[in-house]
Amino acid sequence: MHDSIHSTPRPASAGALPAGAGEHAARADGQLEKPAVEFRDIDIHYGKFVAVRDFSLAIRKGSFVTLLGPSGCGKTTILRSIAGLVDISTGQISIGGRRVDDIPIYKRNIGLVFQSYALFPHKSVFDNVAFGLKYRNVPKPEIARRVGKALEMVRLPGSEKKLPSQLSGGQQQRIALARAIVFEPEVLLLDEPLSALDANMREEMRVEIKKIQKETGITAIFVTHDQEEALSMSDRIVVMNAGRIEQIGSPEEVYEAPATAFVADFLGKANMLPGVVASVDGQKATIALSAGQQVTALSPKVLASGARVTVVVRPQKLSVGTSATGNRLAGKVVSTSYLGGSAIYEIGIGEGTIIRANTQIDGRLAREGEAIDVGFDPAACVLMDEKGFRIA
Amino acid sequence: MTNRWQLYDARLAWMLVAPVLLLLVLFLLLPIAVMAVYTFFTFVTAGVETSALTLANWKEFLTDSYYHGFLLKTVRVGAMTAIICGVLGYFPAYFIWATTFRHKWLLLLLLIVPFWISFTIRTFSWIHILGEQGLINVTLLRLGLIDQPLQMLYTEGAVVMGLLHFLLPYMILNVYVSLESIDRTLISAARSMGCTSAQAFREVTLPLSLPGLGAGLLLCFVLAAGSYVTPQLLGSGRDALFGNLIYDTIMGQLNWPMGATLSIVLFIVLGCFAAAYTRYMGMSQIVKGLGG
Fold first, then answer.
1. What is the pLDDT of residues A54-76, one digit of tens each?
2. Shortest CB distance from B183 goes to which of A116, A135, A183?
3. Hey, is A312 helix, strand or coil?
4. Is the pLDDT of residue A178 over 80?
5. Do A252 and A352 fall into the same domain?
6. Is the separation of the CB atoms in B108 and B176 below 8 Å?
7. Distance between alpha carbon B148 and the CA centroid of its chain, in Å?
8. Option in B185, B194, B208 nearest A116 (CB)
9. Which ipTM score applies to this complex?
């Protein structure tokens, strides 16, 4: 397993943990509950191409876990492997403690929501939602009752007789959600369900999906490349890159304490300032940036003088002008984007290095070409080592 | 005048479709109109008719059961051919759609290869297979399984066989195109909700491919019912279809007014089937199928 995962703080109350640590945490909580979904050392190859490598994860029952990463990182492959739509090459997958590697897709009891909705165009809304119940031999009156309840849950009661083509994209996706939860599957898999919707609808559906997941208490695995969706909806986020796990943590953890340079960059485009440790005073290190200026940073570990490090600061943690506190860097405004209450500045701090600052406007809006100070608190940054792993 | 040409100018559009419109009017609509007028001309004797208008030809067609028999037989052979094409053609279409073989285009090309040889020559080739001295009879005689050659050629079976040979690619392409337009995640969705692959086929794939099957059935029916070469070469006099009747009336009896009447009848009957299909399925499916 990846070094960086072990270096990540993981509270025991977490929803998703690396498989080994999961059991340990469960014991610490005094619970003997089996994880809802568990991956052990999964590798998935397509011919010579390795889509997923060394994937281990335990997902707690009732939690909402997001697989986040750029396209091609293996997140969808993992999701499809739970459903049985992709065969794993090595390792094992368990759902509710039952190994499913050899169980065919139609016996896995899984709810799937696709990006393209995948509603049956030739069937009415009722027949679409009733589909899973029909193949579970549920009696007809019971089917009618449960379909009605599911449609109420997604706020589309009375739409039974319509065809999918008569519904808007958002409504179709809600029907798809109803269809996936109506037979009470053990796990709900959501494969970028919001990507095909327009921006307003996306926000509404985000809230709705989360609400329904809480109400039903279903274990949900959500795949997305959108960091905002991941941060706002998840109990736990699994950040993936190139077939590997980069970090597992709560939204706050992965945002505030990114385990790797990749996570820092992928979630919220952090400023990455490379430099060399100039002097050390206990946990306080003075770092000479490649850009030519010096900053001080708090390190959880005493650093060696002369070590190469990268200072990672979120644009939101920076202040500019007279309110610049802590580390003050002299710079020049390269561009200004006025956003109403706040503004995003791109500030050159020498040697072609540009810092992005997203701050409240204090007094006057700085214009392009103006000299300006930019500052951040020594505790507001994270330090990465040469290999791009967080120093902890 | 500042009346400059634009890319999406309506005049340009008309100019571009004008040649095709002209051809259609001159060589399709006008001849049909002339034929329609001919049905009211008076037949005097072989090769001679007068433009004196009469309903005699229509009266003869409507009252003589000889013609009705031909029409019924033509519809029956056409329907039979279309249905056999549908049953036989669905499987290869499904196979080409479902295969993970990388060079699918090659399989589709194989379907089109027969079109490289003249349709008439392909029809003639059946004589060497089904004839008295044909492949099948000679083989069976040599093996001693039969003493007398079997009568296979010049039967209705031979005609249907020839039509199948000619029409099967049309059916396969039509079904294939409608299968190809099915979103495969629908099948994954059905499977994830508890369907075996056979059940997913029945619930999703089959119903969604029916428009293509319907288009193939109509196309095969119309082409079979309108065929003339195949029954002429592979059938006996008794297996003649409506097209052969028209040929015989015009070229044999030199009765042009009656020939025109029979042509218009076939035109109307097949037109009705096509219209009924368009009403319920939409013509776009056929266009898709022909576009391959």
1. 999 999 999 999 999 999 899 99
2. A116
3. strand
4. yes
5. no
6. yes
7. 35
8. B185
9. 0.79
CA distance A111 to chain B (A): 7
Closest C-alpha among A292, A287, A266, A290 to residue A277: A287
Give the pLDDT of residue B7. 72
Domain that holds residue A102: 3-109+186-266
Q: What is the mean pLDDT of chain B?
A: 90
Domain that holds residue B246: 67-118+165-291
- Tell whether B24 is covered by a domain: no
What pLDDT, on a 0 to 100 scale, did the predictor assign at position B287?
Answer: 57
CB contacts of A136 in chain B (<8 Å) are 194
Please say whether the beta carbons of A165 and A171 come within 8 A.
Answer: no
Nearest CA in chain A to B191: A106
Q: Which of chain A's residues have a Cβ under 8 Å away from the Cβ of B187?
A: none
d(CA B113, CA B91): 19
Are A95 and A232 contained in the same domain? yes
- The residues pairing with B246 across neighbouring beta strands, listed in sequence order, are none
**pLDDT digits over A299-340, tens only?**
888 778 888 899 999 888 888 877 777 788 888 899 888 888
Residues from chain B that touch A183, judged by Cβ atoms under 8 A, are 193-194
The CATH number of residue B280's host domain is 1.10.3720.10
**How many Cα atoms sit within 13 Å of B76 on the Cβ side?**
11
Decide if B31 is inside a domain: no
Domain annotation covers residue A128: no
Sequence letter at residue B54: T
CB pairs under 8 A between A and B: 58
- Count of CB atoms situated within 10 Å of the CB of B249: 20
CA-nearest residue to A136 within chain B is B194
Which of A126, A133, A182, A131 is CA-nearest to residue A153? A182
CATH number at residue A29: 3.40.50.300
Residue A261 sits in the same domain as residue A369: no
CATH of the domain at A322: 2.40.50.140
Residue B17 lies in a domain: no
Per residue in B133-192, pLDDT (tens digit) is: 999 999 999 999 999 999 999 999 999 999 999 999 999 999 999 999 999 999 999 999
pLDDT at B286 over 70: no
Q: Give me the number of domains chain A comprises.
A: 2
User: B208, A105: Cβ pair inside 8 Å?
Assistant: no
pLDDT at B79 > cutoff 50: yes
Does some domain include residue A36?
yes
Same domain, A337 and A246: no
Q: Can you say how many angstroms the Cα of residue B76 is from the centroid of all Cα atoms in its chain? A: 13
* Predicted confidence (pLDDT) per residue in A183-199, tens digit: 999 999 999 999 888 88
Residue A90 and residue A203 in one domain: yes
Q: Domain count of chain B?
A: 1
Q: Do A261 and A280 belong together in one domain?
A: no
- Could you tell me if A177 and A189 are in contact, meaning their C-beta atoms sit under 8 angstroms apart? no
In this complex, is the C-beta atom of A165 within 8 Å of any C-beta atom belonging to chain B? no
Which of A114, A122, A136 shows the shortest C-beta gap to B189? A114
* Residue A359 pLDDT greater than 90, yes or no: no
Percentage of chain A beyond pLDDT 70 is 92
Compare CB distances from B194 to A118, A122, A132 and report the shortest one's residue: A132
Q: Which residue in chain A has the smallest CA separation from B195?
A: A106
